[in-house]
Specification:
By secondary structure, this protein is mainly alpha-helical. It has helices at 3-24, 31-50, 57-60, 68-98, 100-135, 139-166, 170-179, 185-194.
Length: 198
């Protein structure tokens, strides 16, 4: 196995965890698509947080062969991340529904997060990556990579949470989510849906 294959299997474990939990505990379910997105989010989040303890994909393959014990820890963590994510998102959704003031706070948090995510992506893509490949210096990529990843995950989570408040249909939600993958995309979303000027 390769690091990439382990990472993909890990994400699939998160997806299975979220969908299984949604199937067993119907009140936490967001249907197949929502559970799948939550599973990806939860799996990546927990592996990014706890994988540094020694069971991330590169550590699993460090000796050149698959360390079964570390691989098992990775799968359990990813599966748990999937379960954890749908419970967390549902709890946040219930909290938002109970109070209009909370809704406004989360929308404001989304606006700020989208700007910071966009800036971190631009710095990573247009400053960090060129310095890495032109000068062989990985410092900026390593320094900006993790914060950008966390802002990216926060952007996705918050977009899913405010979707009903904003009245986004499936197409609009898809556009908002895809915008996080395109340089300057989150700035476009801010301008289109929130009339923010920069």
């Amino acid at each position: 196995m390769t690091d990439t294959l382990i990472a993909l299997i890990s994400i699939i474990a998160g997806i299975l965890g979220a969908n299984l939990a949604g199937y067993i505990f119907k009140r936490y379910s967001f249907d197949l698509v929502g559970n799948t997105i939550a599973g990806v989010f939860g799996s990546i989040l927990l592996i990014k947080i706890f994988g540094r303890l020694g069971f991330d994909p590169s550590s699993i393959m460090k000796t050149g062969s698959t360390n079964v014990f570390l691989f098992s820890l990775n799968m359990i963590t990813s599966f748990t991340g999937g379960v954890f994510s749908i419970v967390l998102i549902k709890k946040l959704q219930i909290e938002m529904a109970s109070n209009n003031r909370n809704k406004d706070r989360i929308v404001s948090l989304f606006k700020v997060t989208s700007i910071v995510e966009g800036i971190s992506y631009i710095l990573l893509l247009f400053v960090g990556v060129p310095i890495k490949y032109l000068f062989g210096n990985e410092f900026l990529v390593k320094s900006l990579g993790m914060p950008h990843g966390l802002f990216f995950l926060a952007y996705i989570l918050l977009a899913l949470l405010i979707r009903s408040k904003m009245g986004w249909n499936a197409k609009s939600t898809f556009i908002v989510l895809i915008a996080s993958l395109i340089p300057f995309g989150t700035f476009y979303i801010n301008r289109k849906y929130f009339n923010a000027r920069f």
